[in-house]
């Protein structure tokens, strides 16, 4: 029988609401900003404070549960997802927005058991929009049910993506040529809100038709990936194959057709997986009929082969 994690979800919502008050209080205040992996990868004391608040509240109620938190990982914790009940937390998604007071900042909390996401919560703090989904039970924004647009025709798509924090030539040339090739399809337009979690919730709420990105982390999208699929959307790897939460690549879309259309024109640049495993080519045996057993031990330099089906 499927365990009902509903009470755990309710607890997650209650601590997300508490954390939001901390974010709102800090939003206007002076901030101490530090750098992480690049001059564009920022972190503040509020990121760390909110993560500590969430993790200590959860530990008190569920002492055996495990955590993958963005700022704990930045401080050296290992982001390996086991079968144990695990909370995957991004305390502030959109830290650059937070620092600049660009009013799109989200708290993202996902909960996985046996490596399967059981619920996801994304609180878009300035908008006061609390998105949530429990596996098999639908997706909601402030308790209103969510459905994606269901769009099939990519030439009518509004697509969200992110610029990310990479500033090296390969990442930036791949990223900008992806935008160029998408616009040439043509599509209606491209937007970047500055938080992957909110981008994906826009797909779930039909405000956009697809989101794609290479370089974000599991904590950015673990919650919103479930919210998109519970809203009737699809979530795939950037190649069009099977989504892998730890791969740092994703397409979330209104339909498989739109996802396929994006997979055909966008390319991935190599980036280290969140779990540190050797990078797997995004080969989905079902999709290409291959019987793959061995992992690919080295990154395919440059871009991944096109996996079209
Ligand atoms: O604000 P973060 O939690 O660091 O997440 C950001 C990420 O740093 C950036 O690279 C982009 O991918 C954004 O979409 C993320 O939300
Ligand atoms: Mg983030
Ligand atoms: Mg963050």
Question: What keywords describe this structure?
Answer:
D-Maltodextrin-Binding Protein, domain 2, 21% strand, binds magnesium ion, 5-stranded mixed β-sheet, alpha+beta, 309 residues, single chain, magnesium, 9 helices, 32% helix, Fructose-1,6-Bisphosphatase, Chain A, domain 1, binds ligand LTE5OB6J
Provide an overview of this structure.
- It is a single chain.
- With 309 residues, the chain is α+β, with helices and mostly antiparallel strands.
- The chain has two domains: 6-145, 2-Layer Sandwich (Fructose-1,6-Bisphosphatase, Chain A, domain 1), CATH 3.30.540.10; 154-300, D-Maltodextrin-Binding Protein, domain 2 (3-Layer(aba) Sandwich), CATH 3.40.190.80.
- The chain is 32% helix and 21% strand.
- It is built from nine helices and 14 strands.
- The chain has helices at residues 6-27, 45-61, 70-74, 95-100, 169-183, 196-204, 218-230, 256-263, 285-288, and strands at 33-35, 42-44, 66-69, 86-93, 106-113, 116-124, 129-134, 139-141, 144-145, 158-160, 189-191, 210-214, 234-236, 249-253.
- The strands form three sheets. The chain has a seven-stranded mixed β-sheet, with helices on both faces. A five-stranded mixed β-sheet has the order 11-10-12-14-13, with helices on both faces.
- Helix 1 (6-27) packs antiparallel against helix 2 (45-61) and helix 6 packs parallel to helix 7.
- It binds the ligand O=P(O)(O)O[C@H]1[C@H](O)[C@@H](O)[C@@H](O)[C@@H](O)[C@@H]1O and magnesium ion (2 copies).
- Its EC number is 3.1.3.25.
- GO terms for molecular function: inositol monophosphate 1-phosphatase activity; metal ion binding.
- Keywords: Hydrolase, Magnesium, Metal-binding.
- It holds the Pfam family Inositol_P.
- It comes from Scleropages formosus.
